[in-house]
Amino acid sequence: MTTVNIRRDVDDKFYRYKMPLLQTKIEGRGNGIKTVIPNMEDVARALNRPPTYPTKFFGCELGAQTSFANDRYIVNGAHQADRLRELLDTFIDKFVLCPSCKNPETELVITGKGNNEDIHRDCKACGRQNGVDMRHKLITFILKNPPKKKVKGGKGGKKGMTAEANVAGNLVFEKGAEDGSGDDDDGSPAATPSNGVPTRGTDIDAMLGKADPVIDDPDAAEDVSRKLAATHLNGNGNGHGADDDDEDDADSPYAQFGVWAEENKDASDADIIAKVKELGIVGKHKVLVEVAYKLFHDDTVDQDITKRAPLLQVLCSSEKHQKSLLGGLEKLLALSPNSDALLAGGMTSKALMALYQADVLDEEVVRQWGTHVSKKYVDKDKSKKVRKSSDAFLKWLDEADDESDEE
């Protein structure tokens, strides 16, 4: 891995403070084009800052929407690596380096309460405490998502991982608005949804049993499912979770959720999360089958996906979750009374595009799904028809990759 001095104005090759060189990858095309930062976590760890902070800073400076979920840090639009590296230098100067000794060994400390909150850099090298520019848009985001104290002397935790991350992984996210307006004028994350999706301080917190679920190191989604399955949240209180193999049973929690979802298609995201919790299937990937099959409308599934994007990002935290979501979508379109008309009109491609633009699906997962017919959810002929209807989207992905390679 290529490393550079944290202070890139220092040419000394023996300078002790290093960070990985920021990498970028441009994905998509047209209105769906976005810049992914694949090594943002490594860079942020070297700076002793949550990876959400520099990502959000890029969005503030560029007037672009940002998103961070499922271990992916994204700035909407096409941005060259050199430009983001310059902005990272600005972030380091404003929010990392000690103004007194120019040392990066600082921590952000929040003092005060309410409207009197203040942020300063506590330098571990010289002992000075220096303030930050409280007028910057990033300040509101930091105050709403304060830095966590790291685990000290713990075993099994990754370096730089917060105590919450060791327990809860990446079930909770912060997401930029999808309405094309970018950041709010007050600098707050445009992610706070109007439909009540659980984020900080809501039902998802109680579900995970902690006060502040914003995660700095989201890389343990599967471990989350296992941990939750072993608790009373996923079972009847005896330490055993719901059986993933019983989804076809009419009395299974999955079937019960499906019946409820079909009868409550207009329920708020918070109510849906509460129902998942009530049935003890928190973190289970197969609940996504019922979400797509019973919660969405066959003729407006793309619009439903856009509306439910924050919910899907909370629930869809691994490759297994993505595959189950695609399985539910396959059932919805293949078993619809209007299946032939919907598939002929390219509804599968429209739905996949909505999922992709909401950053719910990974390219590799959707490509594999689109090229491998399966009999798991519907018969083989219907499965082929659904995948055939995805050709336009898969072609779009290929063309977008070709353009990125040429650039």
TrEMBL record:
InterPro entries: ARM-type_fold, IF2/IF5, Transl_init_fac_IF2/IF5_dom, Transl_init_fac_IF2/IF5_N, Transl_init_fac_IF2/IF5_Zn-bd, W2_domain. GO terms for cellular component: cytosol. The keyword GTP-binding applies. Residues 243-407 form the W2 domain. Transmembrane segments: none annotated. GO terms for molecular function: eukaryotic initiation factor eIF2 binding; GDP-dissociation inhibitor activity; GTP binding; translation initiation factor activity. GO terms for biological process: formation of cytoplasmic translation initiation complex. Gene3D superfamilies: 1.25.40.180, 2.20.25.350, 3.30.30.170. Keywords: GTP-binding, Initiation factor, Nucleotide-binding, Protein biosynthesis. PANTHER family: EUKARYOTIC TRANSLATION INITIATION FACTOR, EUKARYOTIC TRANSLATION INITIATION FACTOR 5. Belongs to the eIF-2-beta/eIF-5 family. This is W2 domain-containing protein.
